[in-house]
Amino acid sequence: MGTSGSRDTPAGKFMEPATECTEENNRICLVVNLPGVSEMKIRIELDNRFLIISASNGDKEYRKEITLPWNARIVRKKFRDGVLELILERIHS
Length: 93
Fold this sequence. Notes:
This protein has 93 residues and is mainly β. It has a single domain, classed as Immunoglobulin-like (Sandwich), CATH 2.60.40.790. Helices cover 0% and strands 60% of the residues. Strands 1-8-7-6 form a four-stranded antiparallel β-sheet, with no helix packed on it. It is elongated and about 40 Å long.
């Protein structure tokens, strides 16, 4: 799985949040640290094998881009105390 680091944007720099990723069988578990962010400020985009997680807490902009090893769908999302947990499941075509 590929990830990208901080990058320059017209609005400034995005910070890449600390992320832990585990893969088991046909599932991927992602744990993303988004300190100081409310759940309403988190945006998740999933397009087949490309996942983008972005969030803002006012003065900080977080962004994480991940290329998945296969097409997936989100089967569970949980956010608590600044930690986002996503479970993605492989889509068989």
